[in-house]
Amino acid sequence: MQKFIVNGGKKLKGVIEIKGAKNNSLKILAASLLTNKPVRIMNVPEVEDVKRMVEIIAELGVKIKHVKNGEYEIWAKEIIDHSINSEAAKKLRASIVLTAPLLARLGKVKFPHPGGCVIGERPIDIFLEGYRALGAKVNYKKDLYEITAPRLVGTKFVFRTPTVTGTESMILAASIAKGETVLKNCACEPEVKSLADFLNSCGAKISGAGTHEIIIKGVDKLKGGAHRTIPDRVEAGSFAILAAATNSEITIMNCEPEHLDSLLELLKKAGAKLQKRKNSIKIIPSKIKSLDIKTHEYPGFPTDLQAPFCVLLTQSKGSGLVHETIYEGRLTWTEELKRMGADIHTFDPHRIGIKGPTKLRGREIESPDIRAGMAYLIAALCAKGKSTINNVYQIDRGYEKIEERLRKIGADIHRI
Ligand code: EPZ
Q1: Protein residue with least CA distance to atom 7, ligand 1
Q2: Whose CA is nearest to atom 1 of ligand 1?
Q3: 322 CA from centroid of ligand 1 (Å)
């Protein structure tokens, strides 16, 4: 098992480039199965979750080629299997999105409860309700769901809670269903909009993506196409937080600052100096004051940036309350941050208080999930002395060659 050795406490400086969004790439890969024509996807990050998704898709009998770094070609001329590989699906929540094209094209799909980050219960009840609303039948036997529908039929569906992968799956399923589907209380994340843009470029008729109401007029077939994924807003946000936490000057290139409005507003309010350009953000060293954060669906403060922001609060002056509203298990990682010297009080599974600034000490830490892994990395870069981060597979799931990119801005980090 690989690990990172980090010698922290150094100021960083330089330019870091943002890769394509993992959570957009995984869904565009799944969407490519809706058409029997070739699709090309650009700006795909070379991360472990993408590799797992590619393996699952190849096992379904779909031709998928890694053309070059960041680029894939998929041709789902035929899909020979309707069962999603259980072992792989348990590693990856996004595998659930594959259920939609399989159901829409083959009329059936078999899959296990998907895995992914252990950050809370993560049910799939809304997906099942959505597919039922489109006319499908759901069975659960021997730990596997089997969903069948000779042809999906357009419907009106209101999401009980806005779910990102749920909204994306319903868009996919409804794109080639018979008739019109109206989705309400949809997730508005930029990744949802990018997915709809791709499908529309292939001939789908989707309007309203990026808002709470999406209307999909089903078409019989989609053509092939090409799509460039959007920049990873979580990666860009994590580097902005890293700059503020280490009091460093870092320019984040090839990002979409508009996708980070909630974070950038908070950083400014906390005293961070930053320069926003069309596709870049420069963070300039400044004194940071604590403030409270509450995670919220887009365009609110993203739950995926909660962990890095907690580390920043350990380096900020004053006290801040962190309220994680989306997941019930996404604050447990802070126990290890306390052992690094952070002054954190846990009120309940959704709320912690952080007092700063505190000096963090290097430690041996285990990366529990993608975003907490990134937070430990930021904490290790802030800390005095040496840290060892175990289980870096979790970080590699979401961030491409992170140690090489951090070294370029002066970080003392090595993979062993
Ligand atoms: C997506 O997960 C992302 N994953 C997550 O990123 C991200 O944290 C999350 O959206 C929120 O922004 C991918 O895109 C692959 P949800 P998703 O369904 O879609 C409840 C990362 O680190 N819910 O929007 O699985 C759910 O429990 C990952 O890259 C139901 O109750 O999240 C949660 O409280 C981690 N029933 C809320 O909805 C359902 O059937 C929102 O979750 C589905 C969801």
Answers
A1: 304
A2: 164
A3: 19
Ligand 1 centroid–CA 106 distance in Å is: 26
- Which residues neighbour 141 within 8 Å (Cβ) at sequence distance 6 or greater? none
Give the CA distances from residue 233 to residues 311, 369, 388, in Å, rounded to whole numbers and listed in that order: 18, 18, 27
pLDDT, tens digit, for every residue of 281-300? 999 999 999 999 999 999 99
State the closest ligand 1 atom to the C-alpha of 369, by its place in the atom list counted from 1.
22
> How many Cβ atoms from other residues are within 10 Å of residue 278's Cβ?
8
Q: The tokens of 224 are what?
A: 């092939």
Confidence of residue 90 (pLDDT cuts 50, 70, 90): confident
Nearest CA to ligand 1 atom 38: 163
Rg of the chain on CA atoms, in Å: 21
In contact, 289 and 270? CB cutoff 8 Å: yes
Cis-peptide, bond into residue 299, ω within 30° of zero: yes
Q: Percentage of residues in the chain with pLDDT exceeding 70?
A: 100
Q: ω into residue 302 within 30 of 0, thus cis?
A: no
pTM (predicted TM-score): 0.97
CA–CA distance from 298 to each of 33, 96, 255 (Å)? 27, 21, 17
Q: Which residues line ligand 1 (CB under 6 A)?
A: 23, 26, 93-94, 117, 120-127, 161, 163-166, 187, 303-304, 326-327, 370-371, 398
The SS3 of residue 147 is strand
Nearest-CA residue for ligand 1 atom 34 is 326
Asked whether the beta carbons of 281 and 275 are under 8 A apart, the reply is yes
Residue partners of 323: CB distance under 8 A and separation at least 6: 292, 293, 294, 295, 350, 351
**Taking the CB of residue 158, how many other CB atoms lie within 10 A of it?**
12
State both tokens at 368.
């529990």
**Rounded to a whole number, what is the distance in angstroms from the first to the last CA of the chain?**
9
In whole angstroms, how far apart are CA 180 and each of 86, 137, 158?
Answer: 33, 20, 14
> How confident is the model at residue 4, as a pLDDT?
98
Distance between CA atoms of 76 and 248, rounded to whole angstroms? Answer: 46
Q: Which atom of ligand 1 is nearest to 161's Cα?
A: 38
Which atom of ligand 1 is found nearest the CA of 126? 40
List, by residue number, the catalytic residues.
117
